[in-house]
Amino acid sequence: MAIAKPVSSSVELGLEDSVNDNMTAGRRTPFEFASEPHLGTDISDERTTLLAHGLDETEVEDFSSLPWWKRPSVLWLLPPLLPFTLAFGGVAVPKINLMLTLICREYFSDRAAKDTTFTYAPVILGVENPQCRIPEVHALVSRFQLVMNFIAGILSAVVSPKLGELSGGYGRTKIIGLCTLGTFLGEVITALVATFPDTLPVNLFLLGSFFDGIFGSITAAVALTQSYAADCTPANKRNVSFGYFHGVLFIGIALGPLTASYLIKATGDVRVVFYAVMACQVIMPIFISFIAPESLTKERQKRNREKRNIKPLDINKLRLQDFNPLHLLKPLAVLLPVADKTVSKTGAGKTRVKLVQRNLIILAAIDTALFGVSMGTMNTLILYVEYVFGWGNIESSLFVSITSTVRVLVLLGVLPLLTRWIRNRRNNTLSEAQTNRGSDKLDIGIIRVSILFEFLGYAGFCLVQTGPLMVLCGVLNAMSAMASPTINSTLTKHLPSDRTGQLLGAVGLLHALARVIAPTVLGFVYSWTVGKLTQTVWILLASLLFLSFISCWFLLPHVYIPGSSVEHSSNSDNTEQPSENIEESI
């Protein structure tokens, strides 16, 4: 449907307006990404007048004059990310089974202490313990994981916005390194518990969750790596760049369980997995902090610190109202942007701003739901298949590997080819590649199809009763892998580039909140329905995904707030430009 909207040429929002034809292309790195950050121009507040189109030429020169090994690129993050995600995927099943073993041992020990006539087979670490596959033990494990996720999620939600702010003022790489350091410390605790299971209590896992959350956890790390990618990637290639991150993540999740299974078989000792995980995860903070080039120049960091008054935490300036829970939601204000007053005071301008706000809210809500589903089901799914189908470490690891392999193929094969095939057919100008133009129909189409696949996968989980069909539904679910990177890429296309860090910081906050709420709700549901109607958790998730699928049909393409608008004061006669009828395809 085409809607004609009269918009003043001096104040139009989100249209494909002309730009300076003299803009030149920046040099390219050996990684074939534009090395300079496409950050547009700085603005001190969303309500101040936006500046002229195009990249800051000084900023471009800063990066183009550097040797390639000092130029930022998304591919700098991929080598250290692979062992990090390999460890993340490899430790998932052994860690859950370690908790299951320790909690099962405590359960039977407590029961035997209360009933002297009760006897049970010994619970041995690192081997199959079929006596533990009972609803009571699974319910206890689910509730314990609920507490772990609650601690890590709450702390991450509190610190993630501050970390996102600091990354803009002091550099992305330092803060990413800090986030991954917290994950490493959490796995050190896991290795200690696995090494001394008869001495250290299972509750020590909660300390690991504390370390993980206080440094922002993986939610902050993912948001900041995407900020790094947005700094040095043209807008029309961001979904592919974000897809690389997600692809490497699922490569690790695919190969990690297989590697862990091989180590367990080869050594006969599950503790070797936890030691290998520590060795892999220490690489990321070291490489990111000391080797990877920073994506923000020193000058831009300084301007950000001065413009936004960014400072490290000052204990002496803390006030009681700073601990108000409502202050936690302040970073979400970026999802309700306000354009320049001279722009938004017109009828057409107000309408366009409202459409941008609606798109941002819908996209953020869907992304939060998908992330919550992913985080909430990660542990529950392993418990479910082991309880319903009697799978052990090897079978569960193989299931995770198969589904993750499909995700990798979709992210590293289907998504780039689809993007290149469709977008290369268009005659994009340089400015279109380097400036935000809002989401297009390809972005929205990918989001809709991906959510449909995920809905069908979880609907299948509700119905299947055999292991092979469960794997088939898992594969169907994995075909939705394009949704998350496309949504994150699409979000960044709605606002000026210097708001990318703030926007993805808000996404990180929503992810942190989802990490608290989703595992809490799903863990509670599973713990109360296991052994009764165990599929209840999948029914709940299928319903949520159905609502997400419906809501994504309200997204509109090509609405955005550009990085510039013409100031009224720039017109010497202060006369209003003639209106134009602009047709927008919806």
TrEMBL record:
Locations listed in the record: Membrane
Top-level taxon of the source organism: Eukaryota
Keywords: Membrane, Transmembrane, Transmembrane helix
Biased composition (Polar residues): 566-580
InterPro entries for this protein: MFS, MFS_dom, MFS_trans_sf
GO cellular component: membrane
GO terms, molecular function: transmembrane transporter activity
Major facilitator superfamily (MFS) profile domain location: 75-560
Disordered as annotated region, ranges: 565-586
Topology within the bilayer: Multi-pass membrane protein
Membrane-spanning ranges: 74-93, 175-196, 202-224, 244-264, 270-292, 360-385, 397-418, 455-483, 503-525, 537-556
Protein name: Major facilitator superfamily (MFS) profile domain-containing protein
Organism: Trichophyton tonsurans (strain CBS 112818) (Scalp ringworm fungus)
